Amino acid sequence: MTKIKPSVDSLSAVAAGGLALPGSETPSFRIVATTLIIASLGGGLFAIAGAPLAWMLGAMFVTTGVAMAGLVQLGVYAWLRTTMIAVLGVMLGSAFTLALLYQMPGWWPDVLVLAGFIAVVTGIGFAVFRYGAGYDATTAYFSATPGGLSEMAIMGHELGADIRTISLIHATRILMVVATIPVYFRVVEGLEIPALPRDVGSLIDIPLYEALMLSGCAILGVPLGRISRIPAGALIGPMVLSASVHLAGFSSAKPPAEIVAAAQVVVGASIGCRFAGLTLNDARRIISAGMVSGILMVLAAALAAYVFADLLGRPVEVLVLSFAPGGLAEMALISLILAIDTAFVSAMHVLRIAMVVIGAPLVFKLTKSGPHEG
Fold first, then answer.
1. Contact 161, 136 (CB under 8 A)
2. What's the rounded Cα separation, in Å, for the pair 171 and 16?
3. What is the pLDDT of residues 7-43, one digit of tens each?
4. CA–CA gap between residue 140 and residue 134 (Å, rounded)
5. pLDDT above 80: residue 281
């Protein structure tokens, strides 16, 4: 069977995983259906094997393997991933309470540590990409900044960086962080990681009026997030509306198991599809550099968590999840599955992306040509 291999020019769209990057294309229904079947089978196999975060990791690993083998075309509709992210935002909003709101002003030490962590891992990543991989300073800089994949790729592209390299490195970073964090928690922290949250309900248990209300949060939240132009608006908009509904006491619904599993499959498949048709030979240097960077970021997150746990008064596992720079949706989903301070972890990742999206171009412009060409 002939391998399906995209052209080099399509690399940015492939790595974007359906996000709005230049050159992205909408896959056909057959391709999407095939992808979701493969991803679901992967999730099911991992669940049977008792793997942590089985539905997301199974979908991610199997889809990545099939995608890189290039035997079939794979893809996920951008709107489908956006829908699942919006649903995830609604789920995350349910974790916000009045007690949590009162605690937020006291989070400033956590935010300061997070800002310092971002600066350190960006510097480490820049050194890896600039001096280890030999990329130009602009490409190395925007590859190293742990912000949103699409935001960093587009910003870098507008400033003359290689969008293909940036997008694939960030895709690899997310893959590595999402793959290693569950293993870290099981092996190092000794935590039992279920395939689904232990305290979940079912779609049939949610009252109709609550289902309609939460659906409205998702439907209205996405355009609200986009209009406000906040980073990750498709998740944050529904999350804010859902938090408002739950804080007001209009809903107390728990995340339905069926939706959590479906969200894992779609998010996992979206990660795997970013590597469609690529092999290690096609992009060995880029993927290798992204893997090294991703592993270093996870190690840095674990180290920072242990160093600052007592100072900040938070459990190590909460800080590891808060610092590990995977994708916002992916890390929020992991915290939801583990039931580890979901609202705090989600808020820290929202702040991380906001800091990077706002700060990265400012730092670049303040240094005129970006980091020193050295």
1. yes
2. 7
3. 444 444 444 443 333 345 688 899 999 999 999 999 9
4. 8
5. no
Which residues partner with 201 through β-bridges? 256
What is the model's pLDDT at position 282? 66
Tokens 């990742």 -> residue: 349
DSSP 3-state percent helix, strand, coil across the chain (nearest 5): 70, 0, 30
User: Taking the CA of residue 29 as centre, how many other CA atoms within 13 Å lie in the half-sphere pointing to its CB?
Assistant: 0
- Distance between CA atoms of 63 and 61, rounded to whole angstroms? 6
Distance of alpha carbon 45 from alpha carbon 49, whole angstroms? 6
Largest CA distance in the chain: 62
At 266, list the tokens: 């779609």
Architecture of domain 8-366: Up-down Bundle (1.20)
| More confident of the two residues 196 and 238 | 238
| Res 8: pLDDT | 41
- CA proximity to 373, closest of 202, 134, 77: 134
Structure tokens at 193: 């990681």
Read off the pLDDT of residues 337-370 as tens digits, 9 standing for 90 and up.
888 888 899 999 989 988 998 898 888 888 755 5
| Residue recorded with tokens 């820290």 | 348
The tokens for 133 are 């991989």
CA dihedral 120, 126, 132, 134 (to 10 degrees): -170
d(CA 256, CA 254): 6
197, 264 Cβ separation under 8 angstroms: no
- Distance from C-alpha of 50 to C-alpha of 52, rounded to nearest angstrom: 7
pLDDT tens digits, 103-131 = 889 999 999 999 999 999 999 999 999 99
> What was the pLDDT predicted at 207?
85
